[in-house]
Amino acid sequence: MLAAAIETEPGEQPLLDLTLESQRRWPGFAAELEAASGLSVGLRTDGTLQVALTRDDLELLRSSYEFQKGLGLNIAWLTGTQAREMEPYLNPRAAAGVHSPGDGQVDNRAAAAALRLALLKAGGELHEYTEVEAIEVEGGRVRGVQVAERLHPADVVVLAAGAWSRGIPGLPIAAQPPVRPVKGQMLSVAMDPGDPLLRHVVWAPKCYLVPRRDGTLIVGATTEEKGWDDRLTAGGVLALLEAAWRALPGIEERPIQEMWTGFRPGSRDDAPILGLAPEADGLVLATGHHRNGILLAPVTADLIAELVLTGRADPLVERFGIGRFARAGA
Questions:
Q1: In 3D, which of 287, 280, 317 has the Cα closest to residue 302?
Q2: Which of 108, 207, 242, 263 is the most buried (most CB within 10 A)?
């Protein structure tokens, strides 16, 4: 989901400039990636709809709307009737909605496949299914990356290992990003591509629903502090299905396609960690994006590439450096 507006919550104001800037860059990033790879990334900019089903939901939605509107975000309040006009298969009792026309979505798996092919076409070397054994640091400077008992020398190493970033051996303590795994369970069901149950991304109470052009409807996601436990649970799947069914009753007859778990890279303040690492010259951090990894991909790529190539850190990078945790006494 590319939902810089709808996803903004109280306390996340410092992140808003970064998410909005990255959302603005997505069309150009997608076009460049598709040209380089020859693959579609499924970018859609048809907006996001958030709905309330009960009176309690309505109060929460109103509070969220007023907060986001106060930040100057482009969102509009909808009556229940207006929300159902946008999405006719919503629960007939839907009480209200908020439409964010600037939000959208991209197919994350398609984008990853396109990035892989673009890298290979550009002459990059990819070591798939191969463990990074260590980042070599000697005398306060990065020497390279140890992979399959072989050192790959490098003047600059970018640490972008998601939820695994903190645990890679070889990092000085001060350079270890405070990143942890935040478990999420998800599932998908099959819709009729010619008559889909939804056409927009919909945020419903306790779940979100993402329709793909091929008829896949993604239902997500739990947020669990369970370490590296990657098991699907009956309670997690039940909660997702019940929340989806309450918002979209027609999902009941749809076949389940897939169920899976993943690990968001959560930082201490749920914002990314970008820029130079201390006590390891040549080590650049690009991790801790939590639930915004796909949304922040274009701006992260641009800012980190600029830092590596020129040595200059954009003010946006400096704002999200690892040093903020030391300053806060975290």
A1: 317
A2: 207
